[in-house]
Amino acid sequence: MNLTLPSTREEAWRWSDLSGLPALAEAEPQGGVIDTSDLWIGDGPRLLFVDGRLDNALSEPGDLIVGSVAAQSGHPLGRLATGEGWTLDLASNVAASGLIEIVHVATGGANHVPGYIRLGEGAQASIVETFVGDGWTNRLTAIAIGPEARLMRAIRLMQDTGFGSIREESEILNGGSLVTTILGAGAAGTRIDAEILLAGHGAYAEFGGALLARGTQRHDAAVVVRHAAEGGTSRQIWRAVADDRATASLAARVEVARGAQKTDGEQSLRGLLLKRAATINLKPELEIFADDVKCAHGATVGELDARALFYLESRGVPPVEAKALLTRAFVADALERIGEEAVHDAFLRDADTWLGAAA
Amino acid sequence: MLRIEDLHAEVDGKPILKGLTLALNAGEIHAIMGPNGAGKSTLAYVLGGRPGYEVTGGAVTFNGEDLLAMEPHERAAAGLFLGFQYPVEIPGVSNVQFLRTALNAQRRQRGEEELSGAEFLKLARTQADALGLSMDMLKRPVNVGFSGGEKKRNEMVQMGIIDPKLAILDETDSGLDIDALRTVGEGINRIMRTPDKAVLLITHYQRLLDYVRPDFVHVLAAGRIVRSGGPELAHELEREGYGAIAA
Question: Where is each ABC transporter domain found (chain B) (predicted)?
Answer without folding.
Answer: 2-247
